[in-house]
Amino acid sequence: MPAPSKLSHEKSHAEFHRARKVIPGGVNSPARAFGAVGGEPVVMDRGDGPYLFDIDGNRYIDFIGSWGPHILGHRHPRVVEAIEDALKHGTSFGAPTHLETVLAEIVVDAVPSVEMVRMVNSGTEAGMSAIRVARGATGRDKVVKFAGCYHGHVDALLVQAGSGALTHGVPTSPGIPAGATADTIVLPYNDPQRLAEAFTEFEGQIAGVFMEPVVGNMGLVPPKPEFLDAARQLCSEDGTLLGFDEVMTGFRLSFGGAQELFGVTPDMTMLGKVIGGGMPVGAYGGAAHVMENVSPLGPVYQAGTLSGNPIAMASGIATLSELKETNPYPRLEALGARFEQGLREAATAAGIPHSIGRVGSMMTLFFTSEDVTDLGTAQMSDTARFGKFFWGMLERGIYLPCSQFEALFISAAHTEEHIDEAITAAREVLGEISA
Ligand code: PLP
């Protein structure tokens, strides 16, 4: 099908203006607002496999997949059927169900670090709870996070870097009391030396080191292997819990997540996105001796009226079962490599400085020639050029993340033809914006 030339967004425009009157900024999560690229978001009507359709009837090849969950594409038949079946039994009981144990067993079997797991409703809840458990289990207060890593809107972790020095955290958002981040140490990603210095300075005081083992939230930034190894070793030596936030990477980079891919096993793991197959599910888990601290088994309180919701569990079980049986990961890697090479050639042909971060089906084209290894290098990108790239691609029916500092996601519903269509569009757009 030929790419659309000039799309009409008339209905989207009207709907967004209506939403803005009653919803802050017209969106229920800021990343959707197109703030980083200017203009207004497109209002979606439905998804099908690799496609999204907006309310004006435009079709897009979707490279966001609801920001990660839809690794099987939209409305995968097995997932839809599982949800419909679960619905016949009721939507929520506030009591134990068979389905939550089945999903927990799948997670425990798949994720190397996880011997016990607790279901929650979002990645944010997973992060918030994991920190509490790390603090409760160790009897320590301090936590380390890395600049540019996002762990949901958890007060203690909603902190960016200081100016490169080893700083105590300063809240990124108003409304977070300084006390909530006073025990947060923010360090640069991929810098084992700085992490070692923090352990020297705060020896015996750090409850947990939390990181995205592959960063998706400053654009895609892979870890240096020595960084993960150093984190593992330093944590073990000081009795600190290493927490991998695999909300994006879990069941995406491999069935066992980034920890399986890189062979580094943390003490705690946060999950979300793919684990719910498009329904609101998060989870946190880890070694049994850590998770035994969680209420009602242990003293660390954490709860949820809708946690382990049967519809969400059914969606997660169907998604993970399909992933396990079909093992799409080698194919996703091949599609990712094809996309990366196509973008690299297109940007080179256009004479545009670029750098591409990719691990498997997660990727970012940065508009900088710097090797992007941390927040500082990511921020060297030409975000104005990214904005033009984004809109050029959208006009051609390619739906990309609306920020330079987000990763795109390829799904098992994409084919080589979809990737090639995106590369063709990119070649045109990059040619237009090279000046
Ligand atoms: N952790 C990571 C790595 C994420 O990418 C996100 C969301 O994008 C979260 C946590 C928060 O998850 P949620 O939006 O489900 O609260």
SSE arrangement:
Layout: H1 10-22, E1 44-48, E2 51-54, E3 59-62, H2 77-89, H3 98-110, E4 116-120, H4 123-138, E5 142-146, E6 167-168, H5 178-181, E7 184-187, H6 192-201, E8 206-211, H7 225-238, E9 241-245, H8 257-262, E10 268-271, E11 282-286, H9 288-291, H10 310-326, H11 329-350, E12 355-359, E13 362-366, H12 375-378, H13 383-395, E14 398-399, E15 408-409, H14 416-432
Parallel strand pairs: 3-14, 5-7, 5-8, 8-9, 9-10
Antiparallel strand pairs: 1-2, 2-3, 4-11, 6-7, 10-11, 12-13, 13-15
Helix pairs in contact: 2-10, 3-10, 6-7, 11-14, 13-14
The structure holds pyridoxal-5'-phosphate.
Briefly, what is this?
It comes from Stratiformator vulcanicus. The chain is an alpha/beta fold and 435 residues long.
Helix content: 25-40%
Terminal CA distance reads 29 Å
- CATH architecture verdict of the largest domain: 3-Layer(aba) Sandwich
User: In the residues, how many domains can be counted?
Assistant: 2
Structural class: alpha/beta
The CATH superfamily of the largest domain turns out to be Type I PLP-dependent aspartate aminotransferase-like (Major domain)
Order of helices and strands: HEEEHHEHEEHEHEHEHEEHHHEEHHEEH
